[in-house]
Design goal:
57% of the residues lie in helices and 4% in strands. The chain has 91 residues and is mostly helical.
Length: 91
C-alpha cells in the first residue's frame, strides 16, 4: 500500500525527514566553518534553534539600545552645532 510522507529541503536542496534538521542545516550553512577540523557549526546551529526565544529577545533588546544610542548621538550632534549666547553686560 502506498503511503504519503512529508520531507523538507534546506536551501542547498538537501533532503531532511523533519523541518528541524533542515533548519539546522540552513543555520549551519549561514555560520560557515567554525573551528578547525570538523566544523562546530551544526552543533551551534542546533543550540541557536533550541534557544530561539531567548536569542530573539536579546536581539530585540539590542535593537532598542542601538536605536536609543542613535537618537542620543543625533541629539548631541544638534546641541554641538548650536552657539551659546553670551549674556548682555549690565549697563
Amino acid at each position: 500500500m502506498a503511503i504519503c510522507k512529508t520531507g523538507y529541503f534546506d536551501r542547498k536542496g538537501n533532503f531532511f525527514k523533519n523541518a528541524r534538521d533542515a533548519t539546522v542545516s540552513d543555520l549551519a550553512s549561514l555560520l560557515g566553518q567554525v573551528g578547525e577540523g570538523e566544523s562546530l557549526a551544526p552543533g551551534i546551529a542546533s543550540k541557536i534553534l533550541e534557544r530561539r526565544a531567548e536569542i530573539e529577545q536579546l536581539f530585540a533588546e539590542h535593537d532598542a539600545m542601538m536605536e536609543a544610542e542613535l537618537l542620543l548621538a543625533n541629539a548631541n550632534q544638534l546641541t554641538d552645532n548650536v552657539a551659546k549666547l553670551q549674556g548682555r553686560p549690565a549697563g
